[in-house]
Amino acid sequence: QRLALEWAEGYQTGAQVALYVPLRFYSEQGLTALLARSGKQPWPVLEALIHAKRLNLLLDAVNECPRHLQERCCQDIKALLDAHPTLPVLLTARNLSYRCELRLPTFIVRPLDREQQQRFLTAYLHGNVTRATQMLDQIQNQPGGALIASNPLLLRIVVEVSRSEGELPPG
Predict the structure, then answer these.
(1) How far apart are CA 109 and CA 156, in angstroms?
(2) pTM
(3) What is the pLDDT of residues 119-162, one digit of tens each?
(4) CA-to-CA distance for 167 and 171, rounded, in angstroms?
(5) Where are the alpha helices (DSSP H) in 93-169?
(6) Which of 124, 58, 50 is nearest to 83 (CA)?
């Protein structure tokens, strides 16, 4: 919901627009159809945003694309990048075993150790070391908490949930 609201606000104000596209929903209709569905805008509108250098794409989880469509999905991504070489794209995958040969820079997110987790939380909590320590202890004491705390993306999600709910939900 938050991404949809940011999309609408950015679209109306002339600001940059981020479009999150979960590739697990890739279908026979192709990438442009998925982009249109994800952005709730027809492809020509999205293409106009690309030409105006206002669209940023997050193509999430290429490894979750339906197996029988992975090659076609990768071809569609390559065609999009070839057609729009300045389009900012972040392509994520859980591991490096996906078969896309896109020649994009690769970054591997490594697990955070306890000290890095503490610094990360402290930064996101605007320097509140006490709250960061409490939150980290609470996360670590949950089943699977060590895994969540070691992943920067999941840790950030926990912070956002804490901000919106006022506290961490149990479990």
Answers:
(1) 14
(2) 0.68
(3) 999 998 899 999 999 999 999 998 889 999 999 988 888 888 87
(4) 12
(5) 114-124, 129-140, 145-150, 152-165
(6) 50
